[in-house]
């Protein structure tokens, strides 16, 4: 999917919501547990219920890998079920030396035809480049994450850089390898004020913002500081949407939550 | 596998060689290409040929994931074929927020019963902890890698730390989360002199050293600076061993290479 196609979808829907399919088998509604294909049934119902209110789905690969072969099968079937109009993200946080990253890129852009994959920056340029070489595909590099551990390394100030922190250098250096047409960044929502600063460093790139909802981020603040002239945001909600109810009404409850996000987002967009 | 069991294997064999099963389907010997189960046939022959000369096998998950479901099946079958005496590593470079890392730990310690998994440190403590919680399993955290991109971020000097570089901080901070009984580090071999310095920071931990062979590192230098009283090294060779020959004699050629490493290692150990 191109940047313009993504922007068009956001404009059309009045939504920059990404629904995270972190489908934890332990958290499925009781009536589905133990059924064959419970995860796939759940995912399809969630997609049917939310697709009019979001522009993107993010599949957290860890929850599928941990189910073994069956999990990879369900990941492929879930991806195939997502409408072409929606921007699909493999949240896989891969990254290795060049010849190995090329294999990961093949996995998530060819074998499983996602639009985007998340990538960890620690190993540097040759670990990111193979992903960027695919036309009309997107590389979403970890910038500043929303978890407690982001303070261990991402926020360390660098020498001779006027107090610049590691994550800022990651944003700036990585920008040299790609363009706003094929590169996004993960920026957590737990400190929305950081977003204002990040927007001053990277005004044009799309940001994938997790941490709204279950992790406590505020959609209003994220939107205030994160939106740019092209929207430039994909705000992800996972548990807050897909596990909004643990009863038989889980799909309706997910729809209601997604719709609430959409209604709020349409205000911030206008 | 416990630390003592690993040390015993190294002592018994006079080898700290880890054979990397980066089985690139494009590089298989011509007579195997196109055969059903070519990768599995190849891996089994390599394991049979090298098992007396190495103490560990490292499966680079990227090369299996890129083959889709079939690849995951072959990864499982390869792992099952490796003798219990050998230390098995999933070179997967995973890492995410806590609930997601817990799923990855389940994948590589339970669903696929590896002894160890490689983990990327960028997201900090809660991304590493879930792996460390497994008894008699190992977490191998990226410290200083051997690729060109290691200069982008890993070697950046930090402020107010007397010139300490990011990777040094990663080694020191991560050491607080685990022990030499459940934590190792990836340290690349391309600049062996770095190893001397790294040994002064972490004298006790095992180091997994890639980059010997195809990537140009010297086994002599790595051993000189990296060995400690318990050996403390696993030196990985992938392409240099498994693709030593592209002909029908590939297994014999791999055995010869592994045996050469073992012979040299036994000298450094004594």
From TrEMBL, chains A, B:
Q: Which CDD domains does UniProt cross-reference here?
A: OMP_decarboxylase_like (cd04725)
Q: Which keywords accompany this UniProt record? A: Decarboxylase, Lyase, Pyrimidine biosynthesis
GO biological process entries: 'de novo' pyrimidine nucleobase biosynthetic process; 'de novo' UMP biosynthetic process
- Per the UniProt record, one Pfam family is OMPdecase
SUPFAM superfamilies for this protein: Ribulose-phoshate binding barrel (SSF51366)
EC number per UniProt: 4.1.1.23
EC main class here is lyase
InterPro entries membership: Aldolase_TIM, OMPdecase_type-2, OMPdeCOase_dom, RibuloseP-bd_barrel
Describe the reaction catalysed, as an equation. orotidine 5'-phosphate + H(+) = UMP + CO2
User: Lyase: present as a keyword of the record?
Assistant: yes
Provide the Orotidine 5'-phosphate decarboxylase domain boundaries.
16-254
Q: Which pathway is it part of?
A: Pyrimidine metabolism; UMP biosynthesis via de novo pathway; UMP from orotate: step 2/2
- Secretion signal span: none
UniProt GO molecular function: orotidine-5'-phosphate decarboxylase activity
The domain of life is Bacteria
Return the similarity comment. Answer: Belongs to the OMP decarboxylase family. Type 2 subfamily.
- NCBIfam families with a match to the protein in the record: pyrF_sub2
Identify this protein by name.
Orotidine-5'-phosphate decarboxylase
